Amino acid sequence: MEKPMPPGQRLGGIEPFVRGFSVPAAYFGVFVHAEMLGNMGLCVTNGGTVIPYSHLFRKNRFLDLRRLSICRFLRKSIVPLACPLFDPARSNFFHWMFDSIPLIFAVEEYEKKFGKKVKFLIPKKIEHWQISSLKMMGLKEKDLIRLEVSWKSRVFFSELVLGSPCRYHPSSGAPEGALSPSTVLKLHKRLSGSLANSCDSPRIIYISRKYASSRRFLNEEEIISVVRKLGIEVVYCEKLTFEEQVQAFSHCDGVISIHGAGLTNILFSKRIRVVEIFSEGHGIRADYFQLARILGHEYYYHICESLNKDNDIYLSGGEFKNLLKESRLMIPGLEEKSS
Q1: What residues contact 74, with CB distance under 8 A and at least 6 apart?
Q2: What angle do CA 213, 216, 220 make, to 5 degrees?
Q3: What distances in angstroms separate CA 52 from CA 144, 147, 155, 162, 168, one per listed residue?
Q4: What mean pLDDT comes out for the span 258-274?
Q5: Tens of pLDDT along 315-325?
Q6: How many other CB atoms are there within 10 angstroms of residue 109's CB atom?
Q7: With contact defined as beta carbons under 8 Å apart, do 36 and 25 qualify?
Q8: Which residues contact 228 (CB under 8 A, 6 or more apart)?
Q9: What percent of the chain has pLDDT above 90?
Q10: What pTM did the predictor assign?
Q11: Which of 80, 258, 278, 281 is least enclosed by beta carbons within 10 angstroms?
Q12: What is the DSSP string of 1-34?
């Protein structure tokens, strides 16, 4: 892979990931008569000890730990041998794909070793794209237990199966949020080849954040006008089904986007060029640098000044075109079209 950042660009949160480090091998754990407290996936053993990898990246751990005593008196449910797919940020595409979906691999290892079928516990109210992702991972409706839960819920498991995270906590010896290369590659292999190629011509995708609540271009319409004149495809990820996202990104040659969950879709791509734009106030984050590096994508990033509390940014049309040239995203076959 070529040099992953422009010369002289500060590294920020990417710096720990440029140096070499190791992550633990994948594993699964089995807990008899364990519990899940609330609706955020916090699990405890029969003795009341918090199971660490059920809450590694939870932002408000104090409130979660209070549930250890509060939930003892609240609504109870009992489920058989199961693995819960409850993520604190489960409506976020990135967190679902890397904090929840990888548990399927842990369960498969358990089933292979012990010969027992494990159900997956999911919220009764769950997004359609999440169900689609489970189906594309090979799960059927009969593999799922849909349960209505709230912060007041207390779920008992005859046996609880949990797996090692795809993202690691510093306690593992790796930088915080380090992705497991083996898990990322397994996800890529299972999902990226599931749909047939429908386009042989060069394709570059611009992921628009027009409908996001933060980190947008203040001149989004100007940027869209520029990319369309260049033959670049504008994609609104939130308007696509899960299958459509896999289809679109499985067969593209390059992606450019402001930092956001839409870049998770490079998981489905095959050795492309990725350009990520950071809003300075939001920080330089390593999530998609890591993902690109593991998958063999070429990676380039650019930092813009944050112009408001929502970390929105501005690049003129000319500056945006210069960024495309500097990052070499304007591949042969894409020529500027007339208006």
Answers
A1: 152, 153, 154
A2: 125
A3: 24, 23, 18, 10, 11
A4: 96
A5: 999 999 999 99
A6: 14
A7: no
A8: 234, 337
A9: 60
A10: 0.88
A11: 80
A12: ---SS-TT---GGGHHHHS----PPP-EEEEET-
